Amino acid sequence: MTTDHDQLTIHEAHRLLEERRFSSVELTRACLDRIRYLDERVGAVVTVTEELALRQAAEADKRIAAGDAGPLTGVPMLVKDNMCTRGVLTTCSSKMLESFVPPYNATVVDKLEEAGAVIIGKANMDEFAMGSSTEHSAFSPTHNPWDLSRVPGGSSGGSAAAVAAGEAIFALGSDTGGSIRQPAGFCSVTGLKPTYGRVSRYGLVAFASSLDQIGPLTQDVTDCALVMNAIAGHDNRDSTSAPIPVPDYTQCLNGDVKGLKIGIPKEYFVEGMQPEVEDTIRAAIGQLEKLGASIDWEVSLPHTRHALAVYYVIAPSEASANLARYDGTTYGFRYKDGESMWDTMEKTRQFGFGAEVKRRIMLGTYALSAGYYDAYYLKAQKVRTLIRREFDEAFEKFDVLVTPTSPTVPFTMGEKLDDPVQMYLSDVCTLPINIAGLPAISIPAGFADGLPIGMQIIAKPFAEETILRIAHAFQQATDWHEKRARI
Amino acid sequence: MEFETVIGLEVHVQLQTRSKMFCCCSADYASTPPNTHVCPVCLGMPGVLPVINQQAVEYTAMTALALNCTIAEYTRFDRKSYPYPDLMKGYQISQYEDPIGLNGWLAIEVDGRTRRAGITRVHLEEDTARLTHRSAPGEEAYSLVDVNRSGTPLMEVVGEPDLRSPEEARQYLIKLRSILRYLGVSTANMEEGSFRCDANISIRPEGCDELAAKVEVKNMNSFRAVYHALEYEEIRQRRAVEQGEDIFQETRGWVEEEGKTVSQRGKEYADDYRYFPEPDLPPLSLSADWVEEIKARLPELPEAKRDRFMTDYALPRYDASLLTGSREMADYFEVCLETGLPAGLALPARAKAVSNWLLGDFSRLLNATGTEISDSKVNPEQLCQLLDLMQKGTVTGPAAKQVWEEMFKTGRPAEEIIDRKGLSQITDTGEIEEAVDQAIAANKQAVADYNAGKETAVKFLVGQVMRATRGRANPQLATELLKKKLGEE
Ligand SMILES: [Zn+2]
User: Is there a contact between B280 and A209 if contact means CB atoms under 8 Å apart?
Assistant: First the structure.
């Protein structure tokens, strides 16, 4: 297959498959080849499931031949390595789960298999999804395809980089504080974090249960809608998933944004923000105005400034309990030379987890301890309610809010590794959205010196259609999303 | 100084649901090989999520209602964190701040006095896996984990420190168990571990309202053990205080074989379970309608049944209390009454006759053989036929007891046993006369006593006649004949 095809969108690939221009097996082989050829430099993939992929591709070809193909049938994709895949390693990029093979699928994986998607492998990530650069992978960091000396963002850095590099046509990521959107912004791809409860979390290895949400990373908004059609919906196995009907997300992609009210919260243009980022986002918003949306530049969400603090109490607290199960007794890594049961459990955790994971477990354990609970966890929950309410009020006036996805372009590898707070600040624009459980997308909005800049569009709960409609209209009018990394 | 004992009980009850608390696995963990009723959820594997068992919530609400609790409109689950290999997730899903039931009471009766013992809360949680510790001399000790029990529903009933003696504690447990069995929510068997009790006990000078340092007593596996452990602890604490020693807050274990409690190594620091709301489960709202629906489904509870038995059947309180101690006994009793036997008696007389038999000979054999009434081979119909035969005079009271033993053993009808064993009453004067003559001839001393004016000697002689006829002689006839013959001599 020619290289013209190696950075196809889902809808293009679907059309070409239907036209029998190539088979799913050929397309899958092309992606596998590209991984073989490129991934040594990018480091986006931790497990390649060649055999499984070719089997699924052959099945897909049968479905296509039988005229029974859906939009995802036969399309090669990657699953972030914190989503359980039956019979396939699911490591969370951690030594702790280095050899863990789950006997069950995450619900999203079941749904993608039903839709006929071809799973070609598992994507690299920050260990247990804790990080903003994918440098915290226990195996190897992922590099940004636009500049290999820079980070792809995180924690779904592998998913974003693989899509940007054309190693897969789309990928699934998970987003706890920006882990889909920030890497989507850094890699110039489209990444949606759905409303909390829109997509089942069953089989997603939990980081912070009240914040985690699975979503797509794709080449454009149409693809994003197609993947959402496949993965969204209530799941009996996830009590926090919403029993709300799923619309056909492609129906809202009509290019019409006339009269939509867009608010620009000034607190998201933070101090220390890179001027090129601010200029690019302002220009992109100008573009939306030209398309007929009405813009209010003077929106204020004052509680935003507390979001980072709230997040770094709630997320680590939940994580400290979620990660308590990894003690080497039942599965996963186990320290071999422990002197006693307790020693084995302790050393398993000491050597099985990386530094960032241990830092967050300790933060969370502290915040939940007797005597500190009220001052930290309880207070954080109260402020969380205030942040939610503030968004509720804003959405009485506006259809969406627009902000930068991240205050900077992709930073260089190692730059923030020794300064956790600087690293955490990379998610300052995306964290509040998880705290409020809202849907938000990051779409390519421009470049500064060849480095991608993402624009974030936020809506009220379960208003993914509004987001997709605006993002789609923007992509109809611009070609940022069509630019491909040269690698 | 006079001391007062203060006891509060915490009871863990295994609920009899089909599936586990948060997954579809069968909750029947005991009758299956280890680690066969397990799944990713109860194994605590990565990425899986809990789903609430509705039946367990209903059972807990039923219990809370039966214990006169208020049902929370809003209830939620919390995570209780502590590291131990029997806890598959490293935390237990329990209820901390918003339990299902709050502020109830349980009526207990001690020395004929009824009073209320407060119930602090009734909440729902999941059980842990079962550890078996193995060690052999010269070998390294190890532990086996059976995950079958992990995630089975467990209800905790926390009592107020309202009990004032080991006997009150025992009555509290008997009453609670009876209610649980009436509701059908648990087998509530202490020996099998489906009903587990921990006790907090302290003593304080009479009239003092403050609570002293309390000792938690664990490892009691029967009601008897609870009674003895608390009795032991009560005395131990009194002696310690009298000797000027301090009582420390600690956990002590009951050692059955030695009949004493021993200090279990005190923890250096207080437990910190780091409770926080379970983010994987949304809070539950229990609507007033739902609560009413549950209430309407509650069966008649022991006290109500006892009172009804007293009014409807004119039974003495003692009989009514014992009969309603278990739902099975009460049901058996009422089915007996439905047979209308023994014929010819008014309802109160019939009820008393049945009650006498159930609480007497029936209970004696059940206890002696360790049989549950539900497993009895004799059904109510058969029992009442025996009572009817007795009433009609077909068998005498003493012969009926022999028939009963046989019925209990074999489950055969009374008439058949009477026929086969020839146990029907002898009313033929000739036959009885023969036995009377023999008794007089063989017991010169008794005859002499009678003649000397000792009336009771007749009773002895009647006993001899009954023995000679295997209890079959009509006792009245025998007495008359005896008196007549003795008068002739
Ligand atoms: Zn299970």
Answer: yes
